[in-house]
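S.,

As promised, the oxaloacetate ion run. Input:
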Amino acid sequence: MQAQALAHASRSALSKLVSKAPAPKFNVEGSIHRARCLAQLRSKSSNLERYIYLNGLKGRDPALFYSLLFDNMKEIIPILYTPTVGEACQSYSHIWRRPEGLYISINDKGRIREVLSTWPNTREARISVVTDGSRILGLGDLGANGLPIAIGKLDLYIAGAGIRPSSTLPICLDTGTSTQKYLDDPLYLGVRRPRPETEEARNSYCWFREFMAAMRDVFPRLLVQFEDFSTDNAFRYLEMFRDRQLCFNDDIQGTGAVVLSGFLNAARLASDASGLPLSEHRILFFGAGSAGIGVAKQLMSFFKFNGLSEAEARERIWTVDSKGLITTSRKALQEHKKYFARTDYDGPPMTNLVDIINYVKPTALLGLSTIRNAFNKEAVEAMASHNKRPIIFPLSNPSSVCEVDYEDAVEWTNGKVIFASGSPYQPVVYNGATHEPSQGNNMYIFPGLGLGTLLSKADRVSDQMVEQSAVALAGSLTPAERTADLLYPRLERIRDVSAQIALAVIRTAQDMYIDGARDLRYITDNALLERVKDKMWNLHSPKTRM
Ligand SMILES: O=C([O-])CC(=O)C(=O)O
Ligand SMILES: [Mg+2]
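Predicted complex:
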């Protein structure tokens, strides 16, 4: 009872505080104080403490916070975002300091429009990241504790694409949680109830429809990024709204595009070493949730670029879930897994990863399973035995659920692995040479995809726009990055890269005649790229930008 009152009090306090919050002021910071803050940040004993510190700084002095972030992206992004944001979510009800986003509760049915209208910058809002906390990274159902993932993604929009902070809107849909630990936690911020099931779940789709309609009414110029919804709802909501409202799903489409991009570069490196034609790559997916199947569908584009038909492309992809290799002979297969179910295997269930690798002989092994160390020594060695340069992408986040650590992957393949992980890793020295890992995280895609969508005034986010964002990202590597065998650009260049992606997204929207910013059609690529960069918000000209 007391706990319920607390959760309710904090939510209504949040709406009130948010609506009264003054617009952040951006001052020019003193350089000594800036150095002091950086030293204070570095003096903290854990990344979670650093997260709390940065969060406080953002509230006290946004200008200083953004200035530190922009100048130290490689150091600070892993604190505000993956992997530390995962820990921040897990303990959010305990580390909570102040309202930072909107909670829409399942009990708000019938008055969602009213709740959304409490947001102070309704006219300025351009991008919202919306989660329901049901599958935060690979950490499961965190309920109302999921809000920091939306905040972290929006920090990336600000840092990586120059979206103005006041244009961003983090939202957590609070429909309960099925994680008992949180329901028992007296400090839990959310509605204290299990998630809706069956009949009630069907009603909750009406609730979601009400939410999306209210979003369109209250924020007419808003792009919605769906984030970390459990698999079924991730696919369902995307299908329901992709052609009707400006939205995309980051885990299905953003992750799909970032992996396609890395794979375009990785396959070229592997084929250079082996002589294998690009169209003959074979990809094994370990993990078949929204991200796994989303990525697999997006990787069909790779084979299409290399001249294969849809049926031929599908033949080059194998998927594995907790019950083993996915085949059509499996009973009660979930809908989203059917497309890639193999028709060419009818033996006994194949459940052991090493057996599956030896049967499929994949050129690439992609992990989206959230199972730590699932790619053990035997599995990695099996990949190395079939390939001169095996492609191994352990993509699960955060690092605590990553399928294989970089150091192990380098050692077990004698330095031959072509590697990208979802969470960041440090370079490794092996046999006297330094090997640098790549980070295949959707943070390279969504800022540029969102920026391009908004600048083009497109009326939807099309598959072609997503696909071309991947192609642009793959093409954005500098000669030095290619020489270092990197699959993605260095993080420090993210604004430049986002601008290139935005350019590709705008041109694609124009080719499809779904753009609204007609004036952008008639300028050269160079002029358009300059226009995109010029629109990016920064601390020195805060008023005139996105
Ligand atoms: O947030 C990240 O780092 C990538 C992502 O979308 C996820 O793992 O769900
Ligand atoms: Mg995600």
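The pocket of oxaloacetate ion (ligand 1) is lined by residues 82, 137, 228, 250-251, 255, 397, 422, 441-442 (CB under 6 Å). Residues 445-535 form a domain with the Rossmann fold fold (CATH 3.40.50.10380).

- D.
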